[in-house]
Design a protein that fits this description.
The structure holds 2 protein chains of 2 kinds. By secondary structure, chain A is α/β, with parallel strands linked by helices. Chain A has 10 helices and 18 strands. Chain A has one domain: Alkaline Phosphatase, subunit A (3-Layer(aba) Sandwich), CATH 3.40.720. Classes of the chains: A alpha/beta, B alpha+beta.
């Protein structure tokens, strides 16, 4: 495996003459000092302390809070008591006013696969994958405020200023392909969720570990990959790079010993390679028909009505999933796909306060089609064995109504699922109570720290050891929490 | 004096009588008391005691210790507790959760104690004491008093001629101790480029370079320094450093990331303060309590932008009330940001580590921390008026006087009225005001499900337990202020009313005019068991239909409403409490803004008033009221002065975000930082910096919030606060050399960096504080001068001599550090070279994005920005900084992230950075404009290239470079050459 060599070349964060090396480079050294992003020296122990089961991650993030009880967490009690006044057995502080009667899901649930897992019709497409998936129904959060909760799930802290989970992973492991960024984000095409790019920012980690956003539908999907101006031609570009290289080389030669000046030469070589690799990775024209169909991309040139609708959601989410697969197979370490934008009107996210069926229907069908295609596609290429698929959202929704057909926020319990990359399939770990209001075992819920600890564990990293000192604190992705969920691996 | 320095969680190891420990107990007791108990107390009791009992386990007494079977007496191997404290394979022991694991000796003692029977002396109790668990330890350099050290003499040093300033003496002394020698002085071109970027953030012009190179006067360098320090560009450059530390941005961050259109006056204040060389104490004091310490000054308000500079959660403050947990969490985090901003920035102390537990490394307890939060408990971040026109103020005062005069006269009249009117008048008034209140209640009424067809049948009814002699049914139409739907919302067009299943009121044949909120009274002539309203033609909503009704009253012969005793049934209902629900139909609440009752009551009132004070009195009363209203209107139309986004206790409410009016919110001690389980309420207090804890002024209980902040400001800037002075000179040093004497400018605690030159740090701090050596006290410009005129600063940045191996990281400054330009410097230099840089100072930030959808969550669309817009050709410090969606160009170049304090910028080299420098719309537009200008100025190909080099690099092309450039330009044009030049290492690095 040549990762460490490539990695060394890729990440040229250089502070005060120490090359800040990827932690992976430390694989063979017990203790070694490196410069951290502040330019200070620190000692990091060998981080990869066990062989990894997974090499890469694709995370699907449902912005606005996707309802567990309408997608994956079947609650017969809600069907039985539908319409009766809700009684939680305790005082409940709703975010808005969602303490109406119990409300059953507007979607039917049916069993799937050998495990017989019950899924709602809105995510029926995932039925064929359930035996690969591990569901966690006792996720609990800390707040019902979107921004804080999104930060918590995306960075492990409920406030700004912390690196995204993908930044930690790419900081630690780097990319498998020097010609592509290690961490790629595919935001919802309609806009950013709460907190925008701060959900995948590098914060105090090197800038190179921040998520690179790709907007496949834009004229220039990757910002600044190519010049827009007609003044620069392919010829003038390549000749310009040659001239630049010569002049920068001369400059470096008269300033011997400064590694940064050498690194800079290399960044331009890599930039040129990225210009070749990235468009190829985003180009779907070579994908055969049956694959396009699988992802729901067989309706080229289709036009969609203004109101939210299933075919449009399928196409947009499916496209991101297919691009994700292409990036993953080309060595991108972490891909994050977002579904749902901010809380503007009309709603185009999962925050269904008014009418659950209206948004959850199309969003879930679109998500399920793309996610199922991605899982199957990764599997048929043998990539699922070492690729983790993680489905997350910032919190769940209440089992009671808000308005007549909406649901309020439920930070107390929600669902995550994982699959591939060493995750045991066809199982459920942790349950919610009969209503889907709180974890069944309230003293032992699962938290985002546990998910992150497990993710890192599967990648060969000990979450307790992956630390960076920042403003006086040895920061971890999992703060002072987190347990690897042994039951699902 | 400080109220109470620490939570008095009393601990008393109960020693029995006067007998010595060992003599009273056996040998096992010795192990227990001398070796086991100290471990329990220091490492376990913090969490495992009865008032917290993590995992329901307490180590306080024998009963609680043994009851859960965690310990098998005599058998450590089968004791769960022993398993928990022992490492498992490669994994660390599960307990203690916090801090380091127990040492082998400690584990061994516990093993021995368990194996020998785990004897626990009768009645022996352990009590937690934070002081035992974690004594406050001030034995750390940054807490020690600041005394100016002597400057090293170095009379025997071969390099003594190298010493220009005391700074050089300290650095040379360290170099010689490490057997290192300083580097030669850099050449003139390098020096002027270095100084210009360092002091102003801009490169020198070619003319300035040449003039300096040719200036052979002895003080050429010193005069250059003076010129640069006097330039307004200096403040723009150094303010940026400060804004990095305090997290300045022009939006709020978090969800929505709303604009802060009035943040910029604080940014301008910082720039001006640096340019004016404001004494540091004043600068600090203005930022914490300028309103109270310097009343009447603009800077006293503008400085408070510091407290408000960081992120703010719109949803957590505006949409969620303080009565909810999420609302309190948001406010707790908001104060945390204020406290950490203050202590990280001014003291380099990471007090925020004590939010959830006592600071693990530095002497700061959780109680200290929450007392600091209490100092900021009355301020919020909001727009605050800071400057007014004196003329306007005069008018305002006059109008206010006029109002208060009229109000007094009116009050006199009212008093007279009340005296003669007696209780009847009071009661009548109360009744009217009660009616007014009721009309605002949010329980709107009943609302059916919506339908797509208008003729869908809907019904709602009230069913009594038993028939009652109801005389009248009163129907009240609903009123929904949402979207101005207004009165009579959802009232059916056609309907009938049935009593006991029989129609008594039929309006089904023709459309019924909407009654608004006028009640409809229907007489009843039989005992009533149930009343049902059946709608046969529904009211139209937007594109659909529904039935809504505020109330059904059932009045008996005494006029009492008996509806509330009944049960409401309906065909269907949307049940959206509190506004809509079946239960709202008989809750006695409906909208009645112009109801008859109130009109009648008002009529009664008017009549009484008239009888009491006569027609002339009524007229006078009306005229006063009119006058007051008119004056108020005039007052509201006066210009209110300029606004700055700052700490404020008074501002216009927005949803649940309400000003405290100076009344502090309660701040509680929060065990484990959990807002849901508050402990004792804490008063404001300042942290001690020594075991005596006497530094600074204490805050008295009951003092105003402004006074508490003032005392904090005075304490921070006390000459005896060693942290303040050390912290600030270290920052200045850091920015000059790229690295601080302490490498962690925000953390001088035990987790912070080591000092490379401890004596130099103290000498600089004391000199800056007290003055001396041609430095006036607290003058930044004097401090800069002292540093940049030193020989250390003037060294070449080349690698040579034994430093390359002995000190490759240049910790001891045997050479100057070469650095890459910051994001702002790169952008400003490109504008400067292109001849487009507009040096206009101050004012609202310019956009580098297209702003869309501002009504909800603003979209900052950078990819849609038109870089030909000359408004964006100003210095980068004046750009509008978006917190959650930062500028991609600047971010790629390691610009500070305004979500966190950035005491030191990263300096990275990445392929994405190269792509940005090569291909960004900005780089290309500037290349184009630059080329157009040069092509106008000169026709000669060589001269054109010379000009590009001169303006971008401050030098002429070399003989070997020129032909190469000419070939390139001939083939690809000047634009392409300029694009290359902007990417040169020479362009983005400073030697």
């Amino acid at each position: 495996m040549a990762i460490d060599l490539i990695r060394r070349k890729f990440l040229f964060d250089s502070a005060w003459g120490f090359g800040s090396l990827a932690l992976l480079d430390l694989l063979n050294s017990e203790r070694r000092s490196v410069a951290n992003p502040d330019g200070r020296q620190e000692v990091t122990s060998g981080v990869l302390h066990h062989p990894p089961k997974a090499k890469r991650v694709v995370q699907l993030f449902m912005a606005g809070a996707a309802s567990h009880i309408d997608l994956f967490d079947y609650k017969p009690a809600l069907e039985k008591h539908h319409g009766e006044p809700s009684d939680f057995g305790e005082k409940v502080e709703a975010f808005q006013n969602g303490l109406g009667p119990w409300m059953k899901s507007p979607f039917q649930f049916r069993p799937y696969g050998e495990s017989g897992k019950m899924l709602s019709d809105a995510v029926a497409d995932l039925g064929s994958c359930v035996d690969e998936m591990a569901f966690i129904h006792n996720m609990t959060g800390k707040t019902g405020v979107h921004s804080q909760a999104t930060y918590l799930q995306a960075t492990g802290f409920q406030r700004p200023g912390f690196p995204g989970v993908g930044s930690w992973v790419s900081y630690a492991l780097g990319s498998e392909n020097e010609n592509l960024p290690a961490f790629v984000v595919l935001p919802d095409h309609r806009g950013f969720a709460s907190n925008g790019p701060k959900n995948w920012g590098s914060a105090f980690l090197p800038t190179s570990s921040q998520g690179t956003t790709i907007f496949p539908q834009r004229e220039r999907p990757i910002r600044d990959l190519f010049p827009k101006s007609e003044l620069v031609t392919p010829k003038s570009h390549s000749e310009g790079l040659k001239l630049l290289d010569k002049l920068n080389r001369d400059f470096a030669m008269t300033r011997e010993g400064d590694e940064r000046l050498e690194s800079r030469l290399r960044t331009y070589e890599l930039a040129a390679k990225m210009q070749l690799s990235a468009p190829e990775a985003l180009d779907l024209s070579s994908e055969p028909k049956h694959i396009m169909k699988m992802y729901g991309l067989d309706r080229a040139g289709a036009e969609y009505p203004e109101s939210i609708n299933v075919p449009e959601e399928i196409e947009y989410f499916g496209r991101k999933c297919l691009i994700a697969r292409r990036l993953l197979e080309r060595g991108v370490r972490y891909v994050q796909i977002w579904s749902g934008n901010d809380n503007s009107f009309p709603r185009r996210n999962w925050d269904s306060h008014e009418d659950l069926k209206r948004e959850h229907g199309p969003l879930a069908r679109g998500m399920a089609r793309g996610a199922a295609a991605l899982i199957k596609d990764l599997k048929q290429r043998g990539l699922l064995d070492d690729t983790i698929v993680l489905w997350t959202t910032e919190f769940g929704r209440m089992p009671s109504t808000q308005g007549s057909t909406g649901r309020d926020h439920n930070p107390h319990v929600f669902t995550n699922w994982l699959c591939g990359g060493g995750v045991r399939g066809g199982i459920t770990h942790g349950e919610s109570d009969q209503w889907g209001f709180k974890p069944l075992d309230r003293d032992n819920p699962t938290q985002v720290y546990d998910i992150h600890a497990t993710l890192l564990h599967l990648l060969g990293l000990n979450h307790l050891k992956l630390t960076v000192r920042h403003n006086g604190i040895d920061r971890r992705l999992t703060d002072v929490h987190g347990h690897v969920i042994q039951e699902i691996i | 004096m400080m109220a109470r320095l620490r939570l008095q969680i009393l601990m008393a190891v109960v020693l029995l009588g006067s007998c010595g420990v060992a003599s009273c107990y056996g040998l096992e007791d010795d192990v227990f008391l001398e070796r086991v108990v100290p471990v329990f107390q220091a490492r376990c009791l913090e969490c495992h005691r009865s008032d917290l009992s993590k995992g329901d386990f307490s180590l306080e007494n024998a009963t609680s210790f043994f009851e859960d079977g965690y310990v098998e007496k005599g058998d450590s191997e089968n004791s769960h507790l022993f398993e928990l404290i022992s490492p498992q394979g490669n994994h660390r022991a599960e307990m203690p959760k916090n801090g380091s694991p127990l040492t082998e000796d400690q584990i061994e003692s516990i093993r021995v104690w368990i194996d020998s029977g785990a004897q626990w002396p009768d009645g022996y109790e352990l009590t937690y004491d934070a002081k035992v668990a974690r004594p406050l330890d001030y034995d750390w350099w940054s807490f020690q008093s600041l005394v100016k050290p002597a400057v090293p003499g170095l009379v025997d040093s071969p390099n003594r001629h190298w010493i220009r300033t005391p700074v050089d003496a300290f650095v040379l002394e360290a170099l010689e101790r490490k057997k290192l020698a300083p580097s030669e002085e850099a050449n003139r071109r390098t020096l002027i480029r270095r100084l210009s970027y360092d002091l102003t953030g801009l490169p020198p012009t070619i003319a300035e370079v040449k003039a300096f190179e040719q200036d052979d006067s002895e003080d050429a360098y010193e005069r250059l320094v003076e010129r640069l320090l006097a330039s307004p560009r200096y403040g723009e450059r150094w303010a940026r450093h400060w804004l990095d530390v305090v997290k300045y941005a022009d939006t709020c961050g978090y969800d929505k990331d709303k604009l802060r259109p009035n943040a910029w006056p604080y940014r301008d204040y910082v720039i001006r303060s640096f340019n004016e060389d404001k004494p540091y104490r004043r600068f600090v004091q203005e930022q914490i309590a300028g309103d109270a310490l310097f009343p009447g000054t603009e800077d006293g308000i503008l400085g408070l932008g510091f407290i408000a500079a960081g992120p703010w959660d719109f949803i957590g403050h505006v949409e969620v009330p303080e009565s909810k947990l999420d609302g309190r969490v948001a406010r707790n985090l908001d104060r945390d940001d204020m406290v950490s901003n203050t202590f990280n920035s001014f003291c380099s102390l990471t007090v925020q580590c004590a939010r959830c537990h006592d600071h693990k490394f530095d002497p700061i307890t959780q109680e200290h921390y929450y007392r600091l939060q209490a100092i900021f408990a009355a301020v919020d971040r909001a727009d605050r008026v800071y400057a007014v026109d004196p003329q306007v103020e005069k008018q305002r005062k006059a109008l206010k006087n006029k109002i208060s005069k009229s109000e007094k006269s009116l009050a006199k009249l009212d008093e007279q009225l009340n005296r003669s009117g007696g209780s009847a008048l009071v009661k009548l008034r109360e009744k009217i005001s009660a009616l007014k209140d009721e009309s605002k209640k949010p329980e709107f009424g009943y609302h059916s499900k919506v339908e797509s067809k208008q003729d869908t049948l809907k019904w709602v009814e009230i069913e009594l337990d038993q028939p009652d002699s109801v005389k009248q049914i009163v129907l009240h139409g609903a009123h929904d202020e949402f979207n101005n739907i207004g009165a009579g919302f959802g009232f059916p067009l056609r309907f009938r009313v049935e009593v006991n299943g029989r129609t008594i009121f039929d309006r089904e044949t023709a459309d019924f005019p909407n009654p608004g909120v006028t009640p409809i009274v229907i007489p009843v002539s039989e005992p009533l068991k149930s009343v049902r309203l059946v709608a046969t033609k529904l009211a139209k909503r937007k594109a659909d239909y529904h039935l809504a009704l505020a109330e059904i009253e059932l009045l008996n012969s005494h006029g009492e409403n008996v509806a509330a005793t009944g049960k409401v049934n309906a065909l269907d209902s949307i049940e959206a409490p509190v506004r809509w629900g079946k239960a709202n139909l008989n809750d006695g609440i409906w909208f009645e803004s112009s109801g008859e009752t109130r009109k009648e009551l008002q009529g009664d009132l008017d009549a009484i008033v008239l009888s009491l004070i006569g027609a002339s009195g009524v007229e006078r009363k009306a005229s006063f009221e009119k006058q007051i209203a008119e004056t108020r209107k005039a007052l509201s139309q006066l210009p209110t002065g300029k606004k700055v986004y700052a700490a404020a206790t008074e501002f216009k409410s927005q949803g649940n975000f309400k000003a405290t009016q100076g009344k502090p919110r309660p701040v509680y001690f929060l065990p484990r930082g959990e807002v849901s389980s508050p402990g004792e309420r804490l008063e404001p207090g300042i942290i001690p910096l020594s075991t005596e804890g006497k530094v600074g002024a204490a805050i008295q209980s009951g003092e105003s919030e402004a006074m508490a902040r003032s005392k904090l400001a005075l304490w921070l800037t006390d000459k005896n606060n060693p942290l303040l002075w050390r912290s600030v000179v270290n920052r200045i040093w850091h920015y000059h050399f790229g690295r601080g004497i302490v490498e962690t400018p925000n953390d001088f605690g035990r987790m912070g960096g080591e000092r490379s030159h401890p004596e130099l740090l103290d000498w600089l701090a004391a000199t800056f504080r007290d003055g001396g050596e041609s430095v006036s006290a607290e003058s930044f410009k004097d401090l800069h001068r002292l540093i940049v005129t030193s020989s250390v600063y003037r060294q070449s940045s080349n690698y040579s001599g034994n430093g390359t191996t002995a000190d490759s990281g240049n910790r001891y400054l045997w050479r100057m550090n070469r650095r890459r330009l910051s994001a702002e410097e790169i952008r400003d230099s490109i504008l400067h070279a292109s001849g487009l840089l507009n040096l206009e100072m101050g004012g609202p930030g310019y956009y580098l994005f297209q702003l869309e959808k501002t009504e909800h969550s603003p979209h900052y669309e950078y990819h849609k920005f038109d870089h030909t817009d000359p408004k964006s050709y100003r210095r980068s410090i004046y750009r509008f900084i978006v917190r959650s969606q930062p500028d991609p160009f600047m971010t790629t170049l390691d610009c500070a992230d305004s979500s966190q304090s950035t005491p030191a910028r990263n300096e990275t080299q990445t392929p994405l950075q190269s792509l940005t420098m090569l291909n960004s719309d900005f780089s290309l537009e500037m290349s184009k404009k630059f080329a157009e200008r040069i092509e106008l100025e000169s026709k000669d190909p060589s001269e054109r290239i010379e000009r590009v080099f001169q303006q971008a690099l401050g030098r002429d092309p070399t003989v070997s470079e020129l032909p190469m450039m000419r070939d390139f330009v001939q083939q690809h044009g000047l634009v392409n050459l300029i694009r290359v030049v902007f990417n040169l290492s020479e362009f983005v690095f400073v030697d």
